[in-house]
Amino acid sequence: MANRLDRQAKSEIFSISINHNLNTMDTNILVIYTGGTIGMIKDPKTGALAPFNFDALYKHIPILENFNYQIDSYCFDPLIDSSNMKPAFWIRLAEVIEANYEKYDGFVVLHGTDTMAYTASVLSFMLENLNKPVVFTGSQLPMGVLRTDGRENFINAIEIAAAREDQTPIVPEVSICFENRLMRGNRTNKFNAENFNAFLSGNYPLLAQVGVHIRYNPQYILRPNFKMLKVHKQLDPNVAILKLFPGITENVIQSILGIRDLKAIILETYGAGNAPTDEWFIRDLKSAIAGGITIFNVTQCKGGSVEMGKYETSIQLESIGVVGGFDITTESAIAKTMFLLGEGYSGAELAGKLQSPLRGELTIE
Ligand code: ASP
């Protein structure tokens, strides 16, 4: 399977020589187009947005010719609206990067904004020992629209993917470049469906700010370890997100905890990791944990951290064995849990890994 995909990945790449004097190009960037608004255009007949041929992107960005880089592209077929994202697609995406890892200095992934934070999070876990930039970007307005934010996002992402200092990539991690801000991918969520400024990194500083210059913040960027890339391709989707709300009933809790084959729950709690203290609520969680389900406590807040034991309303969660998620996002928590379950972790080992930063996704207070 992997071999077939590797061959496919290589054969589908087409090259766009931006500078015709190939000898001067010592930077190679692979643009991977998965779909999403950035590459969409209005169908004149229906008025609906649909993906268009990747080649056409370059018609809209003649300025790309000013880069002295070799820019190749890989186009997924079919292109998808990222609301249709699935683990199988994540695995293909990781395989495309793996198959082309040696050949390129950096990767730009064009992706719909709706699930970009999930994809960037999961890729950060799947790509162990990543020593090259993988920069996700997209747009709120299609490239073909005059006021598009896609052109700037795309150009910034290419420049960041190509940036090196002393032959070492400046941002050798999975990031999201959006509206002049570069964020660690596994720290983001999409928080705005209207503004160009659509992504938030509520618990981690920006990796770079794009203005007249691109100002990198090296103190916040992961350092390369120069080890061999290891791509993890097993993801276990037997997980669920349970978001608390005032009035949630035992029926809802029991239905979710009773899902067949369920191995882990991301429990979205209030504030610093707080939950109701009703006797039935604690009893149901306790018996789920006794039955082998891992419960990972993540806050509903966009900033701040879970601190079990700070309030009376979280002491019992701690005592029954709920695992505190510190300041991890829900997107990153679900991605990390699928990844660790896929790697075969369970019980105390799974809890230990969930609570340790693997790719800079959480900060232990
Ligand atoms: N529905 C689109 C997607 O996520 C939205 C976007 O690209 O901004 O693919």
Describe this entry's structure for a reader.
The protein has helices at about 1-10, 55-60, 85-100, 115-125, 150-160, 250-255, 280-290, 310-320, 330-340, 345-355; strands spanning about 15, 30-35, 40, 50, 70-75, 105-110, 125-130, 135, 165, 170, 175-180, 180-185, 190, 200, 210, 215, 230, 240-245, 265-270, 295-300, 325. With about 375 residues, the chain is α/β, with parallel strands linked by helices. The strands form six sheets. Strands 1-5-2-6-8-11-12-15-16 form a nine-stranded mixed sheet, sandwiched between helices. Strands 18-19-20-21 form a four-stranded parallel sheet, with helices on both faces. A two-stranded antiparallel ribbon has the order 3-4. Helix 7 (about 280-290) links the parallel strand 19 (about 265-270) and strand 20 (about 295-300). The protein is globular, with a radius of gyration of 21 Å. Aspartic acid binds near residues 35, 81, 83, 112 and 114. Aspartic acid binds near residues 36, 113, 114 and 140.
